[in-house]
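fold-stage: in
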Amino acid sequence: MDQWSAASLTSLCTWQILSLRAMRLAQMSLAFGWAAVILLLQTADTASAVTTPHDKARIFADLSPQEIKAVHSFLMSRKELGLESSKNLTLAKNSVFLIEMLLPKKKNVLKFLDEGRKSPVREARAIIFFGAQDHPNVTEFAVGPLPRPCYVQALSPRPGHHLSWSSRPISTAEYDLLYHMLNRAITPLHQFFLDTTGFSFLGCDDRFLTFTDVAPRGVESGQRRSWLIVQRYVEGYFLHPTGLEILVDH
């Protein structure tokens, strides 16, 4: 009986020692776990608080393809703008001509770079041709904030930089219209060009004519006239003129 009691007592002591060790290991594991969590949170706070040179330079970065698509989709969804696809072959439409990054104001940039203030709002500049109006015009808009725009605001033109309808850049649709107009104008000269150059606007093979337009498109405010230089469409076509130049008022 005493032997069994001694053995039981030994087993009990061993079990208690093992239990204490297990509890101590569990406490140490819990302490290490909390320490790791605290260290991770401190590291995250430090990383979020530090502004790297790359982060600072990003305020001047060009728009990404995703940002351009987001701005275009947002503008097309604004019914009051009445926008159409820029590919429609007409000038009597409202369409987006250009989307680019809008530089933030200098004072906001300096506060961000020198004083560690909040980064300026990232915005895009959208240039829209309003041709479907009684008085067509070119208007610039600020669209933001990126990458998820929710507002569009008209930008006031700089003093002495009024954007007139006649001074707008030529769009792809307008180039297509000029080509069709030139094709109709030169149709009576089809046989003449075949006899003298071997090329024609009406040709179905690779021997056809093209043109190059020349700027400036006027010498007075409100003028929009371009010289179209008819050329053979071969490699280096600008070195192969036909000698015919047409002045187009458009």
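fold-stage: in (second)
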Amino acid sequence: MFILADLKDTVRTTPNNFKQKLNDVITDELNRKLGNKVYVNVGLCIMLYDITKIEESHVFPGDGASHTNVSFRFVVFRPFMEEILIGKTRFCSADGIHVTLGFFDDIIIPPHKLPYPSRFDQRDQVWVWEYKTEEGSTHDLYVDLEELIRFRVVNEIFTEETPKPPDTVEKEETNKVAPYILHGSIDEAGLGPLLWWENA
């Protein structure tokens, strides 16, 4: 679920921070700059793990700050494909079941990855698995909100944001796409709400 990513960046240190240790300034700046941000094709950056290389600092004409090229390792959230995770149901919609891990909310289990046959209950806004018993009758199993759910990671989507003209920013806000989305699956035995399998 978590990996160490090797990254490089240039850290700008302002004159008021020159009296501090360079390592401390770089650590604070990298955590501020990357912490809780999505790095495209890398994952969700959590926190700095360590600094592997600090090159010479340079001061450019017209800028009193120093600029330092740094190599470092960052703790990143990026589950591998087919990994099984346990999250909590945020809400359900016709698009599927939306799941959170607490620190990451952009997880969806689409309808075609639910147990068959399943239906969306418009009144209660929940998904229901129409489970066939051994006797041949149907028993409805609900995916309730705030319920712990076990799922398999089957896909990831990175969306790189590009700068937009000022007059289109407000329009884009309503259709904003998450920079990192995970797709899950619960269409096999043992997956789905934990309550489904308590007495199995």
